[in-house]
Design a protein that fits this description.
Four copies of one chain form a homotetramer. By secondary structure, the first copy, chain A, is of the alpha/beta class. Chain A has one domain: Aldolase class I (TIM Barrel), CATH 3.20.20.70. Helix content of chain A is 35%, strand content 17%. In chain A, the strands form four sheets. Chain A has an eight-stranded parallel β-sheet with strand order 6-14-13-12-11-9-8-7. In chain A, strands 2-17 form a two-stranded antiparallel sheet. In chain A, helix 1 runs parallel beside helix 4, helix 7 packs across helix 9 and helix 10 packs across helix 12. The longest helix of chain A has 18 residues. Chain A is globular, with a radius of gyration of 20 Å. In chain A, 62% of the residues are buried. At the B-C interface, strand 1, helix 3, strand 10, helix 7 and helix 8 of B face strand 2, strand 3, helix 9, helix 10 and helix 12 of C. Strand 1 of chain A pairs parallel with strand 17 of chain B.
């Protein structure tokens, strides 16, 4: 009566509807290109210390995806990050209360960011041969961006749980994304956002890509803490609509939409693209890889917040899947948690589409 | 075919939608003012003996909220209420059937209300320095109101599960809220109600605030016993609409809407305000406070009904959270059960609103 | 695309919405009258051997309701029905497979109906002082009706899972309800039906009451076996609409609507009346009475079907509730399973209605 | 905003609504005829090695249904298929991970198809006296069809998870269904498909029947792997609409619609017909038959896929139901898993319909 609310849908709510045509998997391309960088599979890694470090990022790059590392992660704060991660996992396995675990995570992330460590990590990435992508938080982007770019970063990801083009601050200076991006020499991906209006404003900052979603998965509690909930199918479709409007408004500037959050299986990957995403950013699903820093465990970047943590290290499943089978198959088992992009390829074949851009038009159904 | 029913939504059904703007938490005010009384956080305690007694009410006041104590609670019936509460909990822990527990609760509340004990409790509150607020039932408000006001009560809460402005009684006298409130020297908050029409009528009684909802939570069984169910998101939005109409009708009298029931996490607090509430009344969520009289246990006031009890003492979780961290943080763990109002502040920041009145306009989504 | 389906609602889907008025429970009447018979509570017993036999029916009558016994039940087939029931329960407690239990139930009900036993039971009922009501199946009503009426039956209930006014049979004679009812000297209640059209046709047979629903509860499997599902809130509202149309069509003949099925708590009783029922027929909820023949167990009449049984004896809860507290309170515990009609009275009071006919107009909400 | 999705319903979402008429079960026919072949019950077996082999197919034929065997099944690859099946089950019972089981299934199905074994199986079927029906995959239909027809196949089933009339292939030849079917001397059933457009195109290939659905049940994971989900009630209704349009378009060619997938109980069988299917194809529900090759276990044909398996052997329940009771009753127990077609007959009787074609018009309701 007094309020209206918009009906929204999760990826679970929807299904892909086959068409009257099918194709061979062999004739299908899952390639994705942003700015000058081309990738064989539409994958970015979520910059969580649990799943990606410079070594993993290099491996992901060789398999066709884009490994994004957290410029404010444990790698940038500790000389022996793997030891810190092991200690967090051991504590999580034995702690009597989750409060202890949350406190230990906050502690580990309270160490200062070291520019030396960051630079070293970037070098490892660059030497590995893939595209060098680093994530910074909106709070610290201003102070750290030039340094990481000097160190060789090719793609900058500015990502918080919720980011806006217009951050109002009573005192002190806030990050002006538009002028900030204009001053940089590298393409920038920004996010997350969750609706048409914010996506449009983020596109207008000059970003090459916009992240949709808060990156949340099973191990995140943003919805219980803040009440901010994102129904990803609706959020992606909204951002894709913003992409079309902005394309028209600018006479041809195409800003990529990257879906981050609530993507657990190969079916979810296919549905995210089907809803209009150009690529997906995966965190939790990569935690089963044997090469993941915290193999078998995951926590979101927001777990480190000093006053309002959202999530903490939780076990996510097996820890022994080779990353190549996880991404490109053949599948291990039949639960949709491996061969994530081989299954995308097959879903496209079964519905008769030959590239990602076409597949964004596939029919969708909504469960009752 | 023969009947129409209105579609309604719970707080769980809805989500808060970010806008294109964000703010710093530091620039945000969660202050709330009713009549001459101003509070830093929009909190009233549910007058349940399980969570609030004069001492807790004083503590809540110091932390910025309003502690409401039950004028017909165990405090007003027993010289050693803490002992009675301990006995109820011990029985609940060992009883073979819930029937025994229900009967013991009924028994404990069958002792007569003592005006001396009530007066003593009010003095404790007044000496504590906060606003002195006491709840009376509609049945007993007539006989007890003047006494508690004489004892120093500043805000009177008249609250039953369901209260109406127009109680029809064949014989005997019923409480005429309008003339009753007109005769009192203190502002009155009345409720609960669940829809537009009743909220409007309660506003017309001259009340300073109207309670929306029956105060139900996990430990209440009103819906199983009476079939009266309240979808809080809809009920709050309805009452907020009534507030607007009444504001217009009276040329400016603003009656506060207080949401009571089905609020379990900080997300629910934020959603209740987002739906249009001016403040929330919390019971169960406060039962984890180490200072709660029945720390770790809860029962609703309706558990004491002699013929049709709805609820009984049930364990609700830990019992060792300092009340200040429960209300204002920092959070313990990541489940949204602590730092309830710090998280509200952050939800407002993330969506770009600087005060509660503005935040009532934030966008809402409805899960499929 | 090729088919349309009507949206329908269960009692669980809906909630009762309070009005701007409340009343005292003392001023409320739950009386119900059908033909010349008046009852203080709107209760008929489901004619299941598990919950009602002549003795229980007498007790129910004394408490204000109408006890209906099954004219084709174990009472009419065995000289010692209580022993047969005990054996069924003992088997159900120890059997290795439900198939054995189903077979034993079929066996017990394969004994022939004895007119002597039936007559004896009717005498017990008549001597008990209440209204004498017996249920017959549509298949056997033709051959048994005159006998039970001669024995003193005052109200005849003709009830199958699904009954229609128009039973088409290729060979042999079918029951013509209209001429059958016209020939009888007693009022007849018929059912179950589940929609407007069938209810209308059953009303046109001259019945005094029409049963809505298949009598199903937790222990019935009609929906899994036949696919025939009844969303009771919709079915009751439909039948009430048929009642209004038929009232208009006949210039004043009021046919009572009796809701049978999916009523488990006092909330469900209140909701059934709120949807438009004049009375409820209860089976499973009465099985907790200490006086029930199979106290603590229940099976529906359809459990006895030789080729397609739907349900079998299942434990339903405690077996020690005095029938008077079950019906009229005070409640034992707070789960809505006792004080079924005291709670109805209170739900009416809380929403401001003074009799059942008025309460049929109370507002309803549908959960999202 | 940017995308539209069609609302769709599963068989669980809907219910059958009785009419104002009932009939005797004795007057009802469940007969179904496709091309020159008439069947007493509208049943095709899903061509899964777990439930059907030549012997079972003969038994199903004697009971009035159509046994379809998998022309590329274990029977066509191994001289002792029963031993292979036993080994798979033993492994599934003891394996430490599902990955091992999946790998063993892939291995068992990697043996080459032997035309001799296939021919021998077809002879067994023909000698058994029923209609000889064999399934081939779209990939292998071109190379194997003439051989199985020469061996005596009377009905050819070309079935993959998703099949289209128009398979686009960059290189190599794809199966042109239209010319392929035109060249064959036997009627062809093709599928699965899931929507109106594809069903129409498959009808235009000259097929005698079109399969709706992917054949999925509890043991399939197609939805988790590919994101392709089929809400069967909607899919069947769509295909039935395509049947009507095509009937009109061709001036009288009636293509049968066969529902395959998500049919677990007799209620589901009745609902599938009620939605517009002419017959149902059952797999998992037949796995409880004592004569099933893998009695008590099931896996879908798609479990054998070398790179993207969807499903693996899982236990499904008891393994000791005589196939005649499973299909035609009397029922064992009351859970709708036996007497599948006797219950269909009764559902038709209870709603007053005398044949399947009429029953396709029965009313449907959608649960809230």
């Amino acid at each position: 009566m007094g309020r209206t609310a918009r009906r929204s849908y999760t990826l679970d709510d929807i299904g892909i509807v086959p068409t009257r045509r099918t194709r061979s998997s062999a004739d299908i391309s899952t390639a994705w290109q942003i700015d000058a960088y081309r990738f064989e599979i539409p994958l970015l890694t979520q910059p969580s210390d649990a799943v990606v470090d410079p070594d993993t990022a290099v491996a992901v790059g060789r398999l066709g995806g884009l490994g994004v590392i957290d410029g404010e992660g444990l790698w940038a704060r500790h000389a022996e990050p793997r030891r810190v991660i092991q200690e967090l996992i051991e504590l999580a396995e034995t702690a009597e209360s989750t409060e202890q675990v949350v406190a230990a995570v906050q502690q580990a992330y309270s160490a200062p960011v070291s520019v030396d460590l960051l630079t070293e990590a970037v070098h490892t990435l660059r030497d590995g041969g893939g595209t060098v992508a680093v994530r910074l938080s909106p709070q610290n982007a201003g102070s750290l961006a030039q340094q990481v770019i000097s160190a060789g970063v090719e793609l900058l990801v500015i990502q918080g749980t919720i980011v806006s083009a217009e951050h109002v601050q009573g005192s002190g200076e806030a990050l002006n994304l538009k002028s900030f991006i204009a001053d940089l020499d590298v393409p920038v991906i920004v996010g997350g956002c969750t609706n048409y209006q914010t996506a449009t404003h983020l596109m207008r900052t000059g970003a090459a890509g916009v992240i949709v979603g808060t990156g949340a998965g099973m191990t995140s509690t943003t919805d219980e803490v803040l009440g901010i909930e994102v129904a990803m199918a609706t959020a992606i479709a909204d951002a894709a609509a913003a992409r079309r409007s902005y394309l028209d408004e600018t006479g041809g500037r195409y800003v990529h939409v990257i879906a981050a959050g609530d993507i657990a299986t190969s079916a979810d990957v296919a549905k995210a693209i089907a809803c209009g995403a150009d690529a997906v950013m995966l965190g939790e699903p990569l935690s089963e890889a044997d090469s993941a820093p915290a193999a078998g465990w995951f926590w979101p970047p927001s777990a480190a917040h000093p006053a309002l943590p959202r999530g903490y290290p939780l076990p996510t499943g097996s820890a022994d899947v080779p990353i190549e089978r996880l991404l490109n198959g053949p599948a291990i088992g039949a639960d949709g948690r491996t061969n994530l992009f081989g299954a995308l390829r097959r879903a496209m074949a079964k519905t008769g589409y030959s590239d990602l851009k076409e597949f964004q038009k596939v029919g969708l159904s909504v469960a009752h």
